[in-house]
Each structure stands twice: as structure tokens, then as C-alpha cells.
Amino acid sequence: MAQPRRRVSFVVPPPTTHVTRLRLPAHGMQRLGATGPLLVPYETQDTPHVEETPPWARHPRHRLGISSLALDISTQLAGQNTPGGILYSGGRDGLIIAWDLGVPMKKRRTKLSVTPSRKNDHWEYMTGWADDAIEEEGEEDDRVGTDGDVLGDVTSSLKRSRQASVSGETPIEQQWEADMASFRPGSHSEFRQCAQAHSDWINDILLCNHNQTVISASSDGTIKSWNPHAPVPSDPSVIGSHTDYVRCLSLCREQNWVASGSFDRTIKLWDISRSGQSDPLVTLNPADASAPKSSVYAIASDPFGRTIASGSPERVVRMWDPRSAKRTGKLVGHTDNIRAILISDDSKYLLTGSADASIKLWSLTSQRCLHTFTHHAESVWSLYSTHPNLETFYSGDRCGLVCRVDVEGCGDLSDGECVLLCNDTGDAPRPAMEGINRLAVLNDSLLWTATGTSTIKRWHIPPKRAHVPSYSQYDADGERFSPAHSPNLSPAKRRIAIPHELASEASTRPSTGHGSRERGHSIDATYHGVPFDSLVKLLSPNDPFTPITQGRNRDPEVATLYSAASIMSVQRGNSSRMQIQSSFQNTHGSPLQSSRTEDTMMATNVARANYEERELASEATPYCSEPDDVLVGEDGLVRSVILNDRVHALTVDTSGEVAVWDIVRGLCLGRYLADDVASASHSGSVDAGNGESERSPREALEAVRERIEGEAVVSTWCTADTKAGVLAIHLTDRCFDAEVYADEVGFSHDDKYFNDESKLNIGKWVLRNLFFGFIREELHLKKVQESPVSKDGFLPPSVTRGADRTHVPPPESPRKPRHRPSSSVDSNRRRSRNGSSSTAVIHSPKMIPAIPPVITSFPRSSPLLTPLIPLIPAKEMLPPILQSPVASPGEANPQTPSASNHQRSRSGTVDGYVTRTPSTGAGTVKDDYFTLRTRQQSLPVIGFDETPATPGTPRAEPPTPSTPGGLMGRLKNFGKIAKRPVSDAASPTLGALTPTAETLAAFEDITPEVPKTPMQQLLAGPLTPPGNVDAPLHAFPPQTVVLITEEAAPAYRVVYRGHVASIHHDTAALEEVMPMWLAEYLLLSKVPPSAPLAKFSFILLPWNKDPDVEPLPELLNTAQSKLTASRYLRVAKILQHVYDKLEKVAASESSKVPSVRSSLDANHPQSTSTESSSGLASRPRPEDQYEILCSEALLPLDMTLAAVRQYVWRQSGELVMHYRRKVHHRDKVGAPF
């Protein structure tokens, strides 16, 4: 099988020292002949602008937007009695960062469960569908299950198993809660560790395996797992892949699988108990796989693996049964893309957030929309809830608003609470980066928000209504009642609440000045301790006089109240709602007693009146004006462009600052401030009102590029991208096509290796410097192999190839396979990284190791759980076959050691440790061989002694290949061996194995021929790496990351990751994964064949447009004035050609007409015998005599023909150039004549 295409990449590290500030040159400045960028340092460098890195920033930080968050409150650290909380963040830079929160914890007093009095059909009671729920329960047994996209038999199975619980104990992940009484507001979270898990955006992360494993999904098409608490840190490993971006993940806790949704329109289930990449357990395919809007944007699954819900741009929520891998229903109602989904623990309710700015609550039993929440005015991007029945949930929209809806314990939705918690749009450079990508909430008191920026913010939010101390509620007549137990009271009476004790825990919190707002409000200005300005009115579906919102671009209740699957229940729902409305009318008797009229009459202040009319969160005031803590990120790179000299590149970051890079040396040369770039941009417009620029990153790069770029024409040898927020350069086997003159990249003519005509191949130059440690290590190992060894054939471990290899084969033996076991590779890496075998994981020096959780019960079982997907096939459940241990030196091996071919040395043993010696008894290797009798054999065994062996008589030692009775001698006697009688007990013809190359080699100490891989063949021959002439050495920054990636869909996948400083320790790993085109260049100086250099023709004529100057003769006749040369030929060479031709013309004319001489002859006197030695030294240079013009522009000597054609000629016709005598030289020298 052909090896997939692989490429080499390296990441230019961000600068660690002060970067020079540059000034943009004037527009239209001449750069004739200059190949490099025009870099002008700023007159006065802003030293105050460069601040010392604060302590909190001296660690890796996110460079691009944060796409996902995951909260761990169960992992305990060494030396601590309680967990402190760990927050995991996944960003678009491919980084997963763990943060130590330092939040005090305490044991959870009660299990997270549904309130006993409201656990059955609570949402139906609150939304007015209780009668239908009761009727459906009664008719459930009479229903006929249907197939297609309507829940049939699955509905009844869900009904029967809804109340199933795995065990009575609280899961490990939920055993702790925050101790807010001991929490210190304003405390800062600390960096713990990070992993460069992906090479592209991370779109989602989640925690599994009791919060010990992080699963991530990326736009590179892979799903990876990372164990951040492993004793020996290791890189994230791939557990699955899609053929397009992986957008979302969902965990089935009890069945131990993860579902992934992708833009390839499939949902795949992965067994996270297996290590390494494997096939998915189940693949869920849409009805129409070619539909353009079937990409999966959101998925959710219940803890027991019964239901999976998915959302997509087709505006339909699709339901799946993972056990049968079939679609079981669809919920129709949203009018735009569905971006977030939550499912209740009992698989009964579903919450969906959509780009149509609505949040819908669905009943999966009846497949209808129970209610639509419309408090958002923009697209809803994220939802979060830890409530088993979703009665408390958080939502974030595209404008950065975060709301909390709490209806737990309410008899009606209008009794619930909708609070605008915060507005996370503070420092977003562009409006598109302001949306809330993900939320994480701890104990309904601490909220973390992730947006399109690289910053994570923590907000100190008020507690839920259920956590507020006792409230006494009174009706209009002063009678006390509890709304949760009085469902027959009107919504108006249930909404009148008077605090009986202190407002709430939130009202007594100390104000930090940067957390929650001041809470010195009167009773009339707050509701459950929350100011009315921060509340949004929840409309009750039971209120017959609820006004319909006008002036909005949609009516969320129209065509979204019911799903397509429950269309038969529309009439029944309407009749029930009419009954409720009629009962309300009979109770109140008059519209004047409606809830809205009564509350308006009783409003005592403007804030409450405004709250009664407020239906949109955008009209409220955020409860938190400032975050409680900020995890600041960096300004990552978002776009790049390589300049035409192919040596320099420009990048722009999220702040609008443009930087100039030398990609050949891996250095940042300077930066242009965002204000300078904005003033230089012609296409970008600045709003005078708020100072925000509408300029895109592409326009910023073009504005700088057109001012500083030189005039060079060099072939492309690499590509660049900024997917991970850093500048990454990629090289393929076509990287050897670009050449530049040595003086253009900083090498002077007086260098011992270069002159004015020397060229450098950029690809060769870069690759040699990146892998110089690898080349040096290979040459050292080659030298060791070819050097004489000691008598016993052993060398010190310091010069061996691996940690477990101490035997060096003799020089005359064929080169053994170079691929070492992974243990030696890991040991090499561990030695080079101080005990860490990971190149992608970075720890904080203050990180406290975690304590593994104590698992008291392994997979929990319940008789109510239906059998789900078998996670391990039957063949994998068999006990593993124990391998025989390798015998130690001097110890008899009772069984034949099973060693792979590449591990077997010349003596036929593993690693060359076991040598065969004469022995007696049944424990010898030879006796073991004869015990492996599995079948009768009619042919005699070749080469064994015919003398019967008697008990107690030692067998003769088989001769070695060096003795006269070796293999050749035995082969000569083949056929002369007589058959032994059947009665011979020791006859090898009874049950002997078939003589094969394998058995012969075992006895004759001959290793069977093993086909060599191309890499082994290359290493077996002489090594001739490139030298300093082809690729001069320079030091890359030691932290430069080197990658080898393999072509895959949808993106290249990393097969090797290392650093320039430690690449010599990874020689074994590089031999395994290095593409052959790279190995051939590094070790043999051999490059792939390339197309011949393109040549083109041009016309060279004398300049005859100056009447006062004697015209120069033509070099050729008019018909032959066209010349052909390489497109990279410099003007200096053309000038030399003109000079030589004119010399010949002048010499020929002087021999014919001696009296006719031009001023040229005065500069070239006739050489004599005495002047022959000094004539060459006194000969003037061509550039002192003549000059070349094109389009009446004087050409510099170092300009190439390709550059002349592209930047000076600028025509499609034949290139025409002229030569003339140098003007100032003629005036100076020709005067005496």
C-alpha cells in the first residue's frame, strides 16, 4: 500500500523579546530592483508601549476565540481535602487549557433530582398541557406505533423506562458543590496545563470517565481524547474521525460512548473505553445524505443511551434511537438553524436554541412544542442546564447577552424568573466576535462565558429562586399561600411576593466593585433579591389576556407550537386551552381583574412597571456590570500572506496589528501598530462616532503589502496559514523549486562560500536547518555501526540506538531494520524532556497532581435498563493470550521465544542476548523444538544426526555454519540419509515439523531474509548529507515546533510533533514517519526531479534616441537580435554580455580600419608582453562603462529578467531592452578626446 502523501511544517514561534516598531513608507515610493520588503524603523521606539509580562501571562494562553468550556468539580488534588474545581477551555487555536479555579467545595447535601411533588409532567402543568398529558397516558396502551419519522414503539419504551435510575447513589461528578459562604469574590484562577490537541479549530469538548478524560472535536476532522491527570503526560490520541468538520459532541454517561456530529451529515458513536482509533460503534445517516442543509450543528443524548437529538440548518430536530441506528421522529417548528440542544435525564423533554432567536421546549412523549421562550432578540448560540428536567437553564445569544430562566417549583410560567445576567461584549474588536459560544455554571452562583475573543470571563450571579430564604407570599386579601402548592390561583395572585426575611444570599454578599451591581434596592425595586431592571417578563400561556408582541419580525407561536408528528393533537390541545381560558374568565369575571391590569394598578414604582412590559432581554440592564475574574488571552494571528521574495511574510492579528516575519530564519522583524495600519488603509472606513474600523484582515494586509513589498519574482516553495493563531509554514516535495541569490538573503560576496552569482535553494536551506540535529545523529550512528567493536560485541548504552538495545551487529552483517519499538522511542523522548513523553502538553511549575477517583461500583446496572449497544465485540472479550517471556542471559528458556523478524539478531534471539550453548536434558532449546509435534511427517528432517538418542546420553551439539559440517555440507548429503525404522522412539520423522527457512534458521543461526523498507535501504548505504555551500547553517529558535502531517480529509493530520532543539532525540520516531523525499535530501542530498527552468526570449538593441551621443553598434544583425536566457538571469550578466560583444566588435573594426577609433579604445590599450600581467587588473568593469534600459527606465544590476518583465516592461509582447554608454562616465572620461 502506498504511503499517504506527507508534508513537513514548522510553526514560527511568537517573539519573546521587544519587537521593533516600523513606520509605513509613503505611498508610491520607488523600489526599483529592491527584492526585499522596505522596512523603515520608527523614529522613536515606544519603550513605554512594551510592558513587562505580568505573572498571570507567563504561560500559554488562548490566541483565538474560545469555542467550548467544561467544568470539573470532582477531581481532588494531592494534599487537599476537597476539590478546587478545574475549568477546561477549548479554543479555535487548537489548544485545550486547564485552569485551577480555587473555589472552595463541600459535599452536596441532596442529590440533583426532580422535586418529588413536581416530577411528573411538571412542564405540562406549567404550560397548560396537563389535560393532554393525562389523556395521552390513558390512551397510551391503545395507540398503534407508526414508523417513519414519528415516534412509535420507541415512545412506549421511553415511557416504561423513564423512571429508571442507575443506582441510588450520587454520581462522582455530582458529589460536590461550591461553598459560596467561603468563596472570596475576585479570586483569580491559575493556569494548570495545556495541550495542543488539534491543528485546527476545536469546536467542542466534554469530560468523561469520571472527569478524568477530555474529549475534543475539531475542524481537522478528528475526535481526540486526552488524559490530563496521567502520571506520565502524553499527547492527545485520536479515537475517531469524520470526513468533514466535527461540530459537536455528546456523552452517554452510563453506556460509555460519545456521539459526534459533523458537517459530513453523519452522527457517529465512539466507544471511549477503547484505546486508539477504531471504527464507530454506530453511524447515523440522514435520509438524504446529499442535502446541503443536513450538516449537524448540535446533538444531545440522554444518560442512558436511549435517545439522540440533532439539530441542523434544515430547521428540524431529528430524533434517533442509537440502539437501532434509525430515525425515530422529527420536531418541526424552528425557522432557522438549530445551534444548541439540551435533553432531560428521563428523555422526556427537549430544549432547543435556534438562530431564529427562540428557545423551544418540546415534549418527546407527545412530540409537540410545549412552550416557546422569546426573551432573546438575536440568534441563540448556547444553552446550559444541570437540572434533570431543564426547569432551570441558561442561554447566550449572538449579541453577548446571557439569561437565566428559572421555573423550578412554579405553578405557572409567569411565576418563574428570567434574569439578564451579563453582557459579554466588552472588548470585542469586531461585532462578529461577540457571540456567546459556550457557558459553564457552578452551583448557579458562578458563570463562565466563552466568546469569539481569547478571553474567558467569570461572573458572580445571584442564586436561584429555590435557594432564596423563606418567602411569604400573600394574595390581594392578605391571606398567605404557597404558589407551588396552589395551582388553582390566578397568575396575578401568584406573582405578588413580599420578602419575609432578608432578600437573599446575593443581597448580603460583599460588593467587590467589579462583580454584581449594588443591591441597596427597596422591596419594591427588587424581586427575589434581583432588581426589576434586570428581569424579563415571562409570559404565561395560561393567561387569556396575554398580549401578542407586535413589531417583531416573527411570531414564534405561529407554526411552531406543534411538531409535524403531533399534528393530530392540535384540536385536542386547542380545546384544553379553551377550557383553561374559560375557567379563568369564570374566576375573574372581568377583564379588569386580569393579571396585567391588576399588576399595573398595584405597581408602586417605574421599575416594576417597566418590568411588567419588558419582554426582551436587550431592553433590560445586566445584573453583573463587570466580571468577577478575567482569564486574558493573546492576540492571535488571523491571516497571513507571503511576500513575492518568498522569504518574508505578513500577518495580522485580532487587534489589527500587522507583523513582518522572516520565515526562513523563523524571526519577527517588526510590527505596524493597528492605528498606523488603519490610517494607511484606503478601503477601510472609520466611523467617527465610535472609532471602530470596518476594515477586514485582508484589507489590512493589502494596505501594508502594497507599501513595503519589493520587486522580486521567486517560485513558490511553501504555503502559510494561521489556523491555530500562529504562523505555520508547510513544505511538500515541491519545496525545491525556489532559488534566490545569496546576496538577497544576507550573504555578502566576500564570504568564502558565496560570490555574486551564488544561489541558494530555499527549500534545501530551510530543511537542513530544521533537521540538522537529525542529520548529525544519523551520521553519528552510522559512524558507530561502521567502527570496530569490542570482542564481545557490546557497546556502552550511550551510543546505542535505543534504551533497550545494547547489541551492535557486526559490520559485515546486513543492516538490521531501523524501526525500534515504541518503548525506545518513548524513552528517548522522556530523556529529552525531563520525564515527559509529550511534545504537546505544557504544565505549570506550580501544578498539583490530581488524585484518581475511588470507583466504588463499576458499570452500574439496573433491571429497568434495556440492553444497548455492545461496546466490546465477543471476540474482544476473550482472555488475552499470555506471551512467553524472553529468556535472560544464561537461563534456559522452556519455550521458544516468539520474536518478530526485526528483533531477531544473527544468533536468532531477541536483541542478541541469548546465545545457544551445549546443554543436556529436556530443557534445551532443541528439546523444546521437538516437543512442538502437531502432525505426522513423512519426510526426514534435514541435517540431524541419525544416531538414536538414548536417555541420559547428551545430544551432540549441532555444528555451526563456520564448521565443515555446516549447511552446505548437509545439503550435499541430502538424499543419502536412510529411513529410520518406525520403532525408533526418537525418530524425528514422527511428528517432526516441515523443514522451512524459519526452522533451519533457528538451528543454523541464520536470520531469514526480511524485505527492507525504503528507509532501511537508504540507511544501509553511505550517507552524503548536504553541506554548507548548498544550505548554510543558521539557528532556528529552539522552541520552533516541527510537524510531519499526513494527507487526510478534511485536513492534514499530525503524525509527528517535535521541537528543533530536541529533534536529535526523536531520530527513531522520525525514521518511522518521515516521507522518503525528505529522507533522501537530508541523508543523500537527493531532491525529486523538477521541471526544467523556464526560459524566455528578449530583444537587446542599442539606445539611439540621444542625437548628441555616438550610437553603439548592434551586437547582432536585426534578424538575429533576439536572445534567450533563464528568467532569473540578472541584468549584470546581460551587461557583461554587452561589454564582451562590444569588445569583439571594437577589436574587429580596429584591425580593418586602424585610424578609426572610438573612446572605447582609449580604455583598452593594446596589451604588450610587459603589460600582459597587469592588463586584466586594469580592465574597467562593465557597469562602469555601460547601462541597460527598459521602457526608458534604468535597470539595476541585480534585477532579474523575470522582474524586469513583470515590474518594468508590463506588456504581453516581446521584452525589449536597450544598452548605452554610461552617461556620467562619458562626460568624465571622454572630455580629453
From TrEMBL:
Region (Disordered) location: 500-524, 786-844, 882-928, 943-966, 1153-1180
Keywords recorded for this protein, A-Z: Repeat, WD repeat
WD repeat residue intervals: 195-227, 239-273, 289-330, 331-372
Biased composition (Polar residues): 505-514, 893-908
CDD domains in UniProt: WD40
Highest taxon listed in the record's lineage: Eukaryota
Any one Gene Ontology molecular-function term assigned to this protein's record: ubiquitin binding
InterPro entries with a match to the protein in the record: WD40/YVTN_repeat-like_dom_sf, WD40_PAC1, WD40_repeat_CS, WD40_repeat_dom_sf, WD40_rpt, WDR48, WDR48/Bun107
Family stated for the protein in its record: Belongs to the WD repeat WDR48 family.
Protein name per its UniProtKB record: WD40 repeat-like protein
Native source species: Ephemerocybe angulata
